[in-house]
Amino acid sequence: MLELRDIHKHWNGQPLLRGVSLGVAAGETVALLGASGSGKSTLLKIVAGLEAPESGQVWFDHTDITALPPERRGFALMFQDFALFPHLNVRDNVAFGLIEQGHRRAQAREQAEALLAPWGLAAHARARVWTLSGGEQQRVALARALITRPRVLLLDEPFSALDAALREQLRAEFAERIGAAGMAAVLVTHDETEARGMAQRAWTLRGGRLESAW
Ligand SMILES: Nc1ncnc2c1ncn2[C@@H]1O[C@H](COP(=O)(O)OP(=O)(O)OP(=O)(O)O)[C@@H](O)[C@H]1O
Ligand SMILES: [Mg+2]
To answer: Which class in CATH covers the domain with range 1-74+152-214?
Structure first.
């Protein structure tokens, strides 16, 4: 269980997060809606450990992890601009997280290829990532996030660079894969339909606080 407890944060002297509390259980996806600039990405960065809250805590499974560095949280992030490594091929992008965790390269690559096959990406395993379509690149990014079996998956506008038809197609596919992987997931999105298609619950960040969206 991921838990945010009374998170506060200012930006440029203005209150941005004014007491945000949220719980996300394993196997559950929660959507975060809210206007541009309302602090959604900042909140995700606090969960990831990339930014520190001024007060309040981040807990995971009864442990306060507020001071734990990002690489020790076992969380995975996926942002809109893919953030794949352009100099690596598809397979090595996916294998990267495992190699970083200390797995042997050959074994990590084997696992990456096994993951890519059912995603329709086997034929692209040795291709440079920038030769793939936008939708294919997002699948690679999700595969790279899931291969390490993260405890929490954080998605920040994962489909915003894609056209409407592709968004719709990936929505169902991603929801299924995330559900099968079974971790707690937080999805930031502007798109209420996307939130309904992928999340079990949704909150709107407004005036620095979370309001139940549905
Ligand atoms: N490093 C930072 N830490 C905190 N706040 C920041 C930082 N950089 C910029 N801000 C400001 O904080 C506010 C919230 O930004 P944030 O990116 O969290 O909003 P957002 O809800 O994700 O918006 P969008 O929907 O446009 O992505 C903005 O006014 C932004 O300019
Ligand atoms: Mg944002």
So the answer is: alpha beta
